[in-house]
Write a structure and sequence with these properties.
Blueprint lengths: L9 H9 L12 H4 L4 H15 L3 H13 L4 H13 L6 H13 L3 H13 L7 H13 L3 H13 L6 H13 L3 H13 L6 H13 L3 H13 L6 H13 L3 H13 L6 H13 L3 H14 L5 H13 L3 H13 L7 H11 L1
Helix pairs in contact: 3-4, 4-5, 4-6, 5-6, 6-7, 6-8, 7-8, 8-9, 8-10, 9-10, 10-11, 10-12, 11-12, 12-13, 12-14, 13-14, 14-15, 14-16, 15-16, 16-17, 16-18, 18-19, 18-20
Family: Belongs to the PPR family. P subfamily.
Keywords: Repeat
Protein name: Pentatricopeptide repeat-containing protein
């Protein structure tokens, strides 16, 4: 049982100073006064008081937890806990867990951390899953990523399942610091622990891993997304596609476009153009031409940019005839105004 320290602790005094503008004082032991007026709250206080008097402490704790969880402000939550302690009932670990979570939810992570350190950590009490999940979120909001990872690792070491909110918070913080491989490791461990991972977790990781060129890890996240029967968004497909193009993994990039087409996902003209550019850069003009024809078949009109890319690619391989075909058939016929760079390439390479 946790000792009655809340009223006398520095944490409580600090909270009391911060809410002195409240119309009703929170340091009084009179339950009817310590909580803002309202029939429901008064009834809850009365019920808790009766349960305490009858020695039904577990039931009283449940009532207290419900009152804390429904508190509308920090002052209300602390008032409930303080008034009950004043009645002679020690708050149990579950009640502290609810209070800590409420403080985090109400935007007071510093107070939540102080409460945890004073009432849980310093007392040698073993934190339960609810407390550890709340402390992950709390530490993330305070920008203490290492502490958050500590709490997260403790969750996993005790075989607890991390909550969806805790997973998202820690991944957001890791990605904000560009620690994408750390985020990937935490993501996998949460996945294997059967945590419920929100779609935001997949989005974050896909963006960060692809941006930094960690393509094998990004593909692993993508596969897990498909295995969970989530339909990837166009944004996720694009992140992976451009990452593959940037990493010169053009065959995989083209396969991804094929998958998008088979799923009816919109493939824009810029993606086809990027694929053509990478093939031309690798001097694989047959593949570049095939992608170009596929783009035309879908209904996209050639523009000056993609024509210049193809002409430049053909000319560098001394395939002058094919370069002029692109110019004559796809630019002049389609009324695409050639850029001066196009003529420079055409005439210079032919010399």
């Amino acid at each position: 049982m946790i000792k009655k320290r809340l009223i006398s602790s520095n944490l409580f005094l600090r909270i009391r100073r911060e809410v002195t503008t409240c119309a009703l004082p929170i340091d009084t032991l009179d339950m009817a006064v310590s909580v803002p007026s309202g029939n429901h709250k008064n009834l809850c206080h009365s019920l808790a008081d009766q349960l305490i008097q009858r020695g039904l402490f577990s039931s009283a704790q449940l009532v207290i937890q419900r009152m804390i969880s429904h508190s509308m402000s920090v002052a209300d939550a602390i008032s409930v806990a303080n008034s009950v302690v004043g009645r002679g009932l020690d708050l149990d670990l579950d009640s502290y867990a609810v209070l800590i979570r409420k403080l985090v939810t109400l935007g007071e992570p510093q107070l939540a951390e102080s409460l945890y350190l004073i009432e849980i950590e310093s007392q040698g009490n073993k934190a339960d899953p609810l407390i550890l999940n709340s402390m992950v979120i709390c530490s993330c909001e305070l920008g203490k990523v290492e502490d958050a990872m500590n709490y997260f690792n403790r969750l996993l070491s005790f075989n607890y399942v991390p909550q969806k909110e805790a997973c998202l918070s820690i991944l957001q913080q890791c990605c904000a610091q560009e620690r994408y491989l750390d985020a990937f490791d935490l993501f996998l461990r949460a996945h294997y622990a059967k945590a419920e991972l929100s779609f935001g977790c997949y989005n974050l990781l896909m963006d960060g891993l692809c941006h930094k060129g960690h393509l094998d890890e990004a593909l692993r996240v993508f596969d897990l997304l498909l295995n969970h029967k989530h339909l990837p968004t166009v944004h996720i497909y694009r992140s992976l596609f451009y990452g593959l193009c940037k990493g010169n993994r053009v065959v995989e990039a083209e396969l991804l476009i094929g998958e998008m087409e088979s799923r009816g996902v919109y493939v824009d003209k810029a993606m086809y153009t990027s694929l053509v550019r990478v093939y031309c850069r690798d001097r694989r003009m047959k593949m570049a031409q095939q992608v170009f024809f596929r783009m035309l078949k879908i209904g996209y009109q050639p523009d000056r940019y993609i024509c210049n890319i193809l002409i430049d690619g053909f000319m560098k391989l001394s395939l002058y005839d094919k370069g002029w075909v692109i110019h004559n058939k796809n630019m002049i016929y389609s009324k695409v105004t050639p850029h001066v760079h196009c003529y420079i390439v055409l005439f210079y390479e032919c010399l």
